[in-house]
Design brief:
By secondary structure, this protein is α/β, with parallel strands linked by helices. The protein is built from ten helices and 16 strands. The strands form four sheets. An eight-stranded mixed β-sheet has the order 11-10-9-12-13-14-15-16, with helices on both faces.
Length: about 425
């Protein structure tokens, strides 16, 4: 009590009444936080009780939530024609004191994307998500949009992309979300997307490389490369190269590459330990859809680690993530056998409301004491390459791998940005 009296926190009659200089505010997703105008700081815990609170129920009839030019939430009473920064539901808050987990893992298979971003305000942040019209990409894009970010859905099918935009706006009509055309199977489309994005003259704080192809029959793209390899890896590689200057100018920024645990079941080196191009873009006689997918996912991790090594000194971090085992999505749609297997396994799979791409953004707005390239599986770190020189199989070939990928793009007459100097 002496400490409370000394700090001026015992001058109120009620336990929940705020001391002088403190103000109670709310976030878009209904969480209460407290602002100290004297010390110019904010915190989630009540300054006296140490409890966290959230808003219960909807706004009263006639009230609407808005956001000012500074990103701060305020409320409009249309009936009495007045505005206030005080949430009218604050009188009906409930305590939120979740039980702390007993293990070191912060997120598990039941964690939703909305829970991972809970309490975070991404107002003013620009996020690009590839393949965002369905599945993991849609849930990730929606979660960011509902937390205030300006989200761009980069998709091949604009009809489905616009439908996804409408679904997000249906949940919050003031969400800043739009769709842009991006076909990763066509390098020129990637180039056009990058040019159109730069023409907007906006920052880029988060780039989620999510789009992927699975179980495709063998085919070559118009650029002359095997489709799974180009869509899952090469297209994203080219996209990041074209946008890396924007990412660096927007620092702190982050690239998240959606990979898979299946990367462990393949290799891209020959018997002598050197990179084998024929394994990246195989001929029809050497092609197996599952193996092509696994190799593309290994490429994702190699690329993410090398990207982090090159750009982290400039404030851009890169992480690869595994979205979760047996997650039911539409990625199996290209072959009826996989569709049957996924349908049979569906009762045991994770809901699409539980994507684990967003653990890559946990602490996005916090400083990182020891920036590292990480492979995340549902939150916990599976591989932590602090020196940026190893990654599962294919270790020791980061630079050769990146040079080879750049050469493939140059071979198909697509200009790339100069390599960053180390």
């Amino acid at each position: 009590m002496a400490a409370l009296r000394y700090s001026g926190l015992d001058d109120t009659d009620s336990e929940d009444e705020l001391p002088p200089c403190w103000e109670q505010r709310t976030t878009k997703d209904g969480w209460v936080y407290y602002a100290n105008h004297t010390e110019e700081k904010t915190q989630w815990e009540h300054p006296k009780t140490g409890k966290r609170k959230r808003i219960a129920g909807d706004l009263p009839y006639g009230w609407e939530q808005e956001t000012d030019e500074n990103g701060q939430v305020f409320f409009v009473d249309h009936i009495n024609k007045r505005t206030t920064y005080l949430d009218p539901r604050l009188a009906f808050t409930v305590d939120e004191n979740p039980t702390r987990p007993t293990t070191r893992q912060r997120y598990d298979a039941s964690t939703t994307a909305m829970e991972i971003l809970q309490g975070r305000d991404f107002t003013g942040k620009v996020v690009v998500v590839t393949g965002a019209n369905s599945g993991i990409g849609f849930e990730t894009a929606k979660s960011f949009a509902l937390h205030g970010a300006h989200v761009i859905l980069a998709c091949r099918n604009m009809t489905r992309a616009n439908e996804a935009v409408s679904r997000i706006l249906g949940e919050w009509r003031k969400a800043k979300v739009e769709a842009m055309t991006l076909d990763l199977a066509l390098l020129r489309s990637v180039q056009h997307f990058a040019q159109a994005f730069k023409a907007k003259n906006v920052s880029l704080h988060v780039l989620v490389c999510n789009a992927a192809a699975f179980a495709l029959p063998w085919s070559l793209t118009k650029d002359g490369l095997e489709t799974t390899f180009q869509v899952n890896h090469l297209g994203h590689f080219f996209l990041v190269q074209l946008l890396q200057d924007v990412l660096c100018c927007s620092a702190p920024a982050r690239v998240v590459v959606v990979s898979s645990e299946s990367h462990r079941f393949t290799d891209i080196n020959d018997s002598s330990g050197k990179l084998d191009f024929s394994r990246l873009s195989p001929s029809k006689s050497d092609y197996w859809a599952m193996l092509a997918y696994n190799r593309s996912k290994l490429c994702n991790i190699l690329f993410s680690n090398e990207l982090h090594r090159r750009l982290s000194p400039r404030g851009v971090t890169s992480n690869a993530v595994h979205p979760g085992n047996m997650m039911y999505s539409s990625i199996h749609r290209n072959w009826w056998v996989y569709t049957l297997l996924f349908t049979l396994a569906r009762p045991f799979t994770k809901s699409m409301s539980l994507p684990e791409v967003t653990p890559g953004f946990d602490g996005f707005q916090k400083p990182i004491a020891h920036p590292t390239s990480m492979f995340l599986n549902g939150g916990p770190v599976l591989s932590d390459d602090r020196d940026g020189t190893r990654c599962e199989r294919g270790s020791g070939h980061f630079t050769d791998f990146v040079i080879l990928t750049q050469a493939l793009i140059l071979l198909h007459r697509q200009p790339v940005l100069p390599q960053s100097t180390d």
